[in-house]
Write a structure and sequence with these properties.
By secondary structure, this protein is an alpha/beta fold. The protein has a single domain (32-204), classed as Glutaredoxin (3-Layer(aba) Sandwich). Helices cover 42% and strands 19% of the residues. Helix 3 (83-100) packs across helix 6. The longest helix is centred in the first third of the chain and has 30 residues, at 2-31. It is globular, with a radius of gyration of 19 Å. Mean pLDDT is 87; it is low at 2-27.
Amino acid sequence: MTRIFAVLAATVAVGGLGAAWLVTQKQTTELFENCRASAVAGGAGAIGGAFELLNAQGETVTDTDVITEPTLVYFGYTYCPDVCPLDVSRNAEAVDLLADGGISTTPVFISIDPERDTPEVVGDFAFNLHEKMIGLTGSPEQVKAASRAYKTFYQKQDGDPEYYLVNHSTYTYLVLPEHGFVEFFKRDAPAEDMAERVSCFVESA
């Protein structure tokens, strides 16, 4: 009988946690309903979460260390010949536009090419694009875990062992410390549009 009560109690506890999560997700969805321009399968809670990576100094950092204010997260690699520099420069421009409006945001660049992108390489790349930009890399396992959390795709191409290319997704993710992932931006989103939408989320939070 004691065992039955224990199982029932555990079931109720798990059910309670599930219900709390659903309520939180519904509240978050309703809170930002007027700001969101994209739809995510499974809801916003299906994207994002904890990660552990290396910063430019080679120190281990987590998502809570990095995401301390509205943050624009992008997955790419420093040897990317065209897409990444354009996307990340656009993100940096959006950060400056937001700053002009009194909203402080952090751009983050996470490398999906840990073989070549050492902490120093990623740090220099990020700083050259924006003084606030945080560059992150890690072991192949750490990078894969972060990519999986954000549902991104990347695949190293065959060819030159030194000058290879990496296919990868190109979304930028807006993450708020109190709410986690709330929105993504496609490559064709102008910096002005990004700044306007980020402002909406920040002001609604």
